[in-house]
Amino acid sequence: MATKKVKNAEVSYDVEEIYGYLAEGKKVYARVSWNGNPAKDELRRCWTDDDGNLKLGKGIDLSEDEVKSLMAMIDKKPKPVDFNAIFDSTAGISEKRKKGMTTVDGFVVLHRRDGTSVGH
């Protein structure tokens, strides 16, 4: 149990579980109880005092539903395009063109035996 002075009042908090740290240890995602109330998941700024005790700063609490919603938003966030993977996947394209294969928009076009292309 630790205490913190807020606007000339003391509040107490108990860090029940630390899930992990962000920003090189400057933020913590943890389950915290304030003034004996039920614990909540929180994302807070943090630091350690001279004795190595974890101190909490400003932050927000998150309900379980809010955590799930945040995770869903992160999963939906567009991922950066890995152009190296795209270029690696076209290895040998020049040789295939030399052998008579054709490409459309960077993809090799397959031809049926009757000469018609597949998918175009």
Give the uncertain stretches in residue-range form: none
The neighbouring-strand order within the major sheet is: 1-2-3-4-5
Helix-strand sequence: EEEEEHHHEE
CATH class category name of the domain at 2-76: Mainly Beta
Shape: rod-shaped
The assigned CATH architecture of the domain at 2-76 is Roll
Q: What class, by secondary structure content?
A: alpha+beta
**DSSP helix count?**
3
Report the sheet with the most strands, covering strand number, pairing sense and barrel closure. Answer: 5 strands, antiparallel
The strand count comes to 7
Strand content: 35-45%
Q: Distance N terminus to C terminus?
A: 68 Å
Helix proportion range: 10-25%
